[in-house]
């Protein structure tokens, strides 16, 4: 089946989002950072029959909503929230029920280098199992360590806030295999 050209695809997307905004009285704006295709597939499967998930480019979503403002002026409240990697979940069901289904599909992910933590991170005082050649990671972070029995041991628990040490902390945590 050949793919439709870009102009046709865009016009179909605008029609689809306008139809969903008209048909469904309630919607969530959900963040989709670090969500893989398999996880998105299970979310769509669990919401089947209760809600519709719509992802797309932010500018196209904003343009479709702005074009539909004369029919429904309350949609203007959605515009400031369309930032980053977001999508819509349209529903006619109870919002708490759909939210619970969305949260049931939320899975913890291992830290990756360069990723921003969605929460505060505590590195507990423990034996890391890493060899002494990895001490530079801990020294860069200012974590007190010692080498015992050929492995690095963290002496004091260390707390990182969301906004500090973006790259170094996640390299370190990835090496520690903490979740």
From TrEMBL:
One of its GO terms (cellular component) is cytosolic large ribosomal subunit. Ribosomal protein P0 is the functional equivalent of E.coli protein L10. GO terms for molecular function: large ribosomal subunit rRNA binding; structural constituent of ribosome. One of its GO terms (biological process) is ribosomal large subunit assembly. It comes from the Eukaryota. This is Large ribosomal subunit protein uL10. The chain crosses the membrane at residues 154-174. CDD domains: Ribosomal_P0_L10e (cd05795). Pfam families: Ribosomal_L10 (PF00466), RL10P_insert (PF17777). Residues 111-155 form the Large ribosomal subunit protein uL10-like insertion domain. It comes from Sinocyclocheilus anshuiensis. Keywords: Membrane, Ribonucleoprotein, Ribosomal protein, Transmembrane, Transmembrane helix. Belongs to the universal ribosomal protein uL10 family.
